[in-house]
Design goal:
alpha/beta, TIM Barrel, two-stranded antiparallel sheet, 12 helices, eight-stranded parallel sheet
Length: 277
């Protein structure tokens, strides 16, 4: 069965109550897990970038905006308890080594490597040492970049799944290149998922599943008009519900590939072939 991840990311806008509502949405839609993003803003971004101007609900600089979008460790404790109460796994994509180490306290089942961090060797090794099943996004990366990351995870004997991804928000449909799912599977001999950032509802994800994607990750939002750079490339409640339902139908449609005569075919067989004697 396809593993469906609701990427909350930073679409909670730093508000724990919005985060809870997004978890509720993922549970109601039938997703298999929810994912957040965690970063130490002062370590991930340069002082020059953080000091640059940017108007947001939290202030007038990039630092104000990026800090405003982060949840604290105390708030992640609330997330942990809330997800357990809702019986849905959660995990994070951490953007720096310190954040990855801090998040270990929650003992989540999965890890995630964001496309932006695919070439961060120290972070990859820190994640791989945990030996948790890890989803590795491959947006804005070369095959050589992916090879290096795969080698690290295999050297540490850490189970992983690559995710075909495109790092623009939203992605243009003519750049989806879904046949890369087959290419990656043939080259790396592992499961390949799809992490989507398109503005259309479920067309690309459904095609990805048909082409063999074993997991689907999509950003979700309560309202695509909300503040935030990821909101427009996210699925709202109706879009998420439809996506999950359509993927589950595909699981049924694919079957096991064995040719049989179904019981429901027997009356037609008897009627239409009796003339053959």
């Amino acid at each position: 069965m396809v593993f469906i991840v609701a990427e909350i990311g930073i679409n909670h806008n730093g508000d724990i109550e919005i985060a809870k509502k997004l978890i509720d949405l993922a549970v109601f839609a039938g997703c298999d897990a929810v994912k957040f993003q965690k970063r130490d803003v002062e370590k991930v971004y340069s002082k020059e970038i953080l000091d640059s101007p940017r108007d947001s609900p939290w202030g007038t600089t990039q630092r104000d905006q990026k800090l405003g979008l982060e949840l604290s460790m105390k708030e992640y404790q609330i997330i942990d308890r809330y997800c357990k109460s809702k019986k849905i796994p959660w995990y994070t994509s951490c953007w720096d080594v310190g954040s990855q180490i801090k998040m270990r306290k929650f003992k989540t089942k999965y890890n995630k490597v964001a496309s932006a961090m695919l070439v961060h060797e120290k972070l990859l090794k820190t994640i791989a040492k945990e030996k948790k099943y890890t989803f590795i996004s491959t947006g804005m990366s070369t095959i050589k970049d992916i090879e290096k990351a795969v080698k690290i995870f295999r050297d540490y004997k850490c189970p992983f799944e690559l995710m075909h991804s495109h790092s623009s928000y939203p992605m243009s449909l003519n750049e989806a290149n879904l046949n890369l799912i087959k290419t990656l599977k043939e080259k790396f001999k592992c499961n390949i998922g799809y992490s989507g950032h398109e503005s259309v509802s479920d067309l690309v994800c459904i095609a990805a599943v048909i082409l063999g994607a074993t997991s689907i990750e999509r950003h979700i939002t309560l309202d695509r008009a909300m503040y935030g750079s990821d909101q427009a490339a996210s699925l709202g409640p109706q879009g998420l519900f439809r996506l999950v339902q359509d993927i589950r139908k595909l699981d049924l449609l694919f079957g096991d590939g064995k040719k049989i005569i179904w019981d429901s075919e027997l009356p037609a067989k008897k009627k239409l072939r009796e003339i053959l004697g």
